[in-house]
Amino acid sequence: MSGTSNEGVKRHGSERKKWLPHTDAQRERRRLTNQAWRARNRDHVRAEGRRWREENLEKARELNRLSMQRQSRKHKREVARRERKRTYARKYYANNRDRILAQHKAARVRSQAADPDRYREMAYARTVRWRDSHRDALNQTQRDRRRANPQAAAESSRRYYEKNREQVLQRKRERYAENHELARAKSNAYYAREARRRTAGLPPRRLHRASPADRVANGVAADEFFSRTYTGQALNEMLLGSKQPTPPELLAAWKRDCLRARAAHHQATTEPATPPSAHDELRIARLAAKAAEDARLDAIGRAVNARLRTERARAALLPDPAAPHHAGSTPNGPHITR
Fold first, then answer.
1. Assuming Cys at both sites, which of 153, 229, 291, 304 could form a disulfide with 146, CB separation 3.0 to 4.6 Å?
2. Range scoring the smallest mean pLDDT among 6-10, 78-82, 100-104, 147-151
3. Which of 111-120, 249-258, 303-312 has the highest mean pLDDT?
């Protein structure tokens, strides 16, 4: 039989004759046929595979080792190929840097001239991807910049708020609506702290951020302060005061500074000279929400109290089940009771 015949080639030497395909079309049909048969008989194929492995365990392990070795060698060749490619690309770029940059610039100019809107969208997408992949470094840089120049950061935040006031307030309202209970708990804790502070006559709380180096230095200074020992003479001087009293002019200057600070604080808290900020509006909204919640709880309390009063009155009219029964009384009906 000819090797180019469409009928295939017969393989002899076995009991069952097998027709082996030799053209691409025949091989593809045979592959699809085998694939369909395996899909229909998946359980049978798995069972035969498990049975063969149990009968030929050592050979199966040897084949598995050979397969893993082939995969390992292939992986090493792929890693080496990628490294050679990167090395060649770096060398090529170093030798042709100016020409490559000129080509990239010309391609960007052509792309922008052909479709400006698509070019703008692609540039924005690249910026977003880079920003998302470097978010931690960008946040750290921004924090360092704010710590280095807090006045400029505060001025930038003020300008942004003036320009986007409605958007800022809307985002705050959405966050408050999503975390209503947590916001109410924080608000109540803040008002309680403020009430205690005003009752004690303390000034407003002021916090400032400290850099990592400042925190380390503060920790070292605190350890030195609390770990040192004091002599009896030093303790007596601290308890009884130093031998040299404070000069009167220093005390007078300190009292004047205190009076000025109290007057400035009173004026700042009682007569605001600036329009209400986002914090004031948010505080007003929280107070309104708190008043509505208090009214709802009061209504529930009144309803519960009314129900309890009704139940107590009904219980007062009924006889006490624990009281002793008299002869002839039938509290539970006409039958005889003890």
1. 153
2. 6-10
3. 111-120
d(CA 180, CA 187): 10
CA dist 115 and 104 (Å) reads: 17
Cβ atoms 8, 19 nearer than 8 A:
yes
Q: What is the dihedral of CA 17, 22, 26, 28, to 10 degrees?
A: 110
Residue among 18, 21, 43, 41 at smallest CA distance from 31: 21
Domain residue ranges of the chain, discontinuous segments joined by +: 26-96, 164-197, 287-316
Q: Rounded to whole angstroms, what are the CA distances from 158 to 147, 155, 168? A: 17, 5, 11
For residues 64 and 70, is the Cβ–Cβ distance under 8 A?
A: no
**DSSP state at residue 20:** E
pTM over 0.90: no
List CB contacts of 101: < 8 A, sequence separation 6 or more.
none
Run of H or E residues at 79: helix 57-95
Of 269, 268, 279, whose CA–CA distance to 161 is shortest? 279
